[in-house]
Amino acid sequence: MEPLFFLCLGTLLYAWAGYLLLLSAFSLGKGFARKEKKSHPFVTILLTVRNEERAVRERIKNLLLLDYPADRCEILVASDGSTDETEPIVEGMLRQGKNKNLPGGKPRIRLVRVEAGGKSLAQNKAIPYAKGEVIVLTDARSRFERNAIRKLVRHFADRRTGCVSGRLMLRRDGSAIGESQGFYWSYEMLLRKLESRLGLMHTASGMIMAFRKDLFRPFEASYGDDCVIPLDIAALGYRVVHEEGAIVYDSFPATLDGEFGARVRMTLRNVTGTFSRMPHLNPFRHPLLFAAVFSHKTLRWLTPYFMLLLLVTNCFLFPHGVFYRTFFYAQAAFYGLGVIGYAGEKSRARLPVASQVFSFLLANAGFFWGVLKAVSGRKVTSYINTEGGGSTKDYEHADGLGARNVRG
């Protein structure tokens, strides 16, 4: 039991602290020269929506106000089979003078209707209609800082750069879950920043991700764009970059059911997507990429399993010394704090430390269930946004679905 105990303990310490320390040590003084480019590449902002009548109008307004040359940027709205007023709202903006024309009389805002099949499938079908040499993916619920596009695309002056992701900042809602998510994503952004310096970044934020159109390859509807697209580009030998100054604001579910469902869905899509790219993760062909994905993603997804094994082995080793007894009591106290945090969340009370511990355990419960679903072959191709959070819906998609028509 002792070897298994220390294997679990060492793995958890490495996954949540050791990898960060290694990146910090190796990235000291590191970085790469960024060439400034006076001209601006033509950019297509791809806004993928499904039944977003409450958010789509303000989102398009936010994109129209970006600090980027209007004649070098188009907004392509891909409607994934919307059945509410989303499409009429976009069409109304086209008719009401919001659609400032590009050179040659071409519209700046266009609508692509796609048969319902999920976000990823809608992106696959819409990208061929994009006129930009650089594609920027985003969604209806997020908001860009005015200089976000300018900050993203300046990296493409270096031909070695294939994909650039911005910095996610969560809107504070005052809940313990929301506050803890802010801490988690601050940690995630730090990892990406360090990996970017070392040329090891392999993931991105789907609400603010830019990439060269000529590097894009269509991908399966059940996989997440934020893991598959950057991984494909990194495997081609191009750099994936984190841009700290390109800021997107978003909010995550602030309810227990919403947060758990979102974590399960994200884990399922990312696990299946990442491991569908096994040739990219060959340690002999791509040793650094393999090490980064294993350290950053795989060990994090497996954290709840190592935590469970650590507790079980500790129970067996409890009689064998003060160290094991002390460690067992420490684990018991940790999980006890989680129970207190749960009680506080149910009563809408923010409890320092306890709320953070509970949020960590809730996230790992999502990892646990998401990995189980991935192993059992489950797939998620679409999810429905609700006011209180998100709920998932699994269904099969038809590969032959295409864009029905393009407006604008």
Brief overview, please?
With 408 residues, the chain is an alpha/beta fold.
Report on the architecture of this protein.
The protein has a domain at 43-254: Spore Coat Polysaccharide Biosynthesis Protein SpsA, Chain A. Helix content is 47%, strand content 18%. It is built from twelve helices and 13 strands. It has a nine-stranded mixed sheet, with helices on both faces. The protein has a two-stranded antiparallel ribbon with strand order 3-4. Strands 11-12 form a two-stranded antiparallel ribbon. A hairpin with a 3-residue loop joins strand 3 (101-102) and strand 4 (106-107). Helix 1 crosses helix 9 and helix 6 packs across helix 12 (354-375). The chain starts with a helix and ends with a strand.
| Helical fraction | 40-55%
Tell me the strand order in the biggest sheet.
7-10-8-9-6-1-2-5-13
Fraction in beta strands:
15-25%
| Low-confidence runs | 386-402
Largest sheet: 9 strands, mixed
What is the rounded distance between the termini? Answer: 66 Å
Give me the strand/helix succession.
HEHEHEEEHEEHEHEHEHHHHHEEE
Query: What is the residue-mean pLDDT, rounded to a whole number?
Result: 87
- Give me the count of strands: 13
Per DSSP, the total helix count is 12
Computed structural class: alpha/beta
CATH topology of the domain at 43-254: Spore Coat Polysaccharide Biosynthesis Protein SpsA, Chain A
Name the overall outline.
globular
Overall CATH architecture of the domain at 43-254: Alpha-Beta Complex
Radius of gyration: 22 Å
CATH homology superfamily of the domain at 43-254: Spore Coat Polysaccharide Biosynthesis Protein SpsA, Chain A
Oligomer: single chain
Q: Determine and state the CATH class of the domain at 43-254.
A: Alpha Beta
